Amino acid sequence: MKAASPLDGLRRDMPDVARHLARIWAILPDARLVGGAVRDLLCGRAVADIDLASPHAPDMVMARLEQAGMRVVPTGLSHGTVTAVLDGHPFEITTLRRDEETDGRHATVAWTHDWREDAARRDFTMNAMSCDSAGVVHDYFNGRADLAAGRVRFVGDARLRITEDALRILRFFRFQARYGGDAPEPEAMAAITALSGMIDRLSVERVWAEMRRILVGPHVVRTLAQMHDAGVLAHVLPEGYDIGRLGRLLACGAPAEAVLRLAALVSGDVAAVARRLKLSRADGAALARTRGEPVPLPGMGADVLAPMLADHALRDLSWRAWLRQADLAGQRSAAWDGLRAMLDGMEKPVFPLAGRDVMATGRASGAMVGRVLAQVRQWWLENGCTAGHAACVARMNGVLHDGPTSAT
After folding, report:
1. pLDDT category, 103, cuts 50, 70, 90?
2. Who contacts 171 (Cβ-Cβ below 8 Å, separation ≥6)?
3. What are the extents of the domains in the chain?
4. How far is residue 216's CA from residue 74's CA, in Å, rounded to a whole number?
5. Where is the Poly A polymerase head domain (predicted)?
6. CA distances for 202 relative to 164, 166, 208, angstroms
7. 1-149 has which fold?
8. Is the pLDDT of residue 176 over 70?
9. Average pLDDT value for residue range 303-314
10. Residue 281 is inside which H or E element, if any?
11. What is the mean pLDDT of residues 172-186?
12. How far, in Å, are 184, 232, 244 from residue 225 at the CA level?
């Protein structure tokens, strides 16, 4: 461990946050840091969110903070959460809870004053720790030892934790990749394997949100292989998957882009995957385009690449090249690197003619304008997008003299 207390690292690396936190503790002295903030501060990782818990009801928490002049937002009162905003820094403060009823997707909660009871409803031991204003870590389930050992372990009975919220199956693999060792904890894997079908009950939006984070996280190939072994990946991607292809993509040095990695992983119909997982319009379109044509290849010159770049986004062409490199080479390659460097250094060609150029001749109008432009643009593409405005005008005049072909 890099710090005896989570507050040591917070004061050193995030002094402004530590100062704001001290203000909150002056008003709510019995509140504690909880969850990921404690975990990541203990192991010296960057902290994304500062979350606290309090034994007081949310309306009392809000009242105390507002009386002290703080801006407070009721971000999730039904679950006991309010957010104090200090100089633009959000601090979520949630009332201690216990689960009254769960259905694998949602939970009905009740307030409690028992810190251990609140910790018992959390997913993993390393997420169940809390830290008070004195810097004392309260660890009811040996999460600190598990964190040090690289052991991702469910709090209490693994099966019970999963039946409370099936998303914990995917969260387990995400945390295993980031905090775990080479082999996942056996009890956890046994429970996940037995209950993997519960993933089908989750909303696909929640599934994709977790999968996106897994795909861009560390040890992604190993993690997906573990998900396959537990029968999980078949529920996430019933259309089919190829972990080996994704491994080859990573071996090529491809960037950590979730949609690109998904394109490599899926072996079935990517359009069907996009529809079922309800990917955003942008992500779904990017996924489809990544599997499209044309594909840049090493050895192609500017005369070949320029027409591609004129009609396709640079990112699409680059991602297609990454996928083809994974299929053809499966490793880093100077030739493929040179191809991408050439593409990156090229400006997107812009067709120099417009409808007004055709209209200025007085010999064309309406649909004919589009046909003439299309025919001249095709000629411009076939000649490497090098012809300038004057050359394209000359070509346009020739087309008008001969008459544009109806097929163009």
Report:
1. low
2. 123, 124, 210
3. 1-149, 293-345, 355-402
4. 32
5. 31-153
6. 12, 7, 10
7. Beta Polymerase; domain 2 (3.30.460)
8. yes
9. 97
10. helix 281-290
11. 96
12. 12, 10, 9
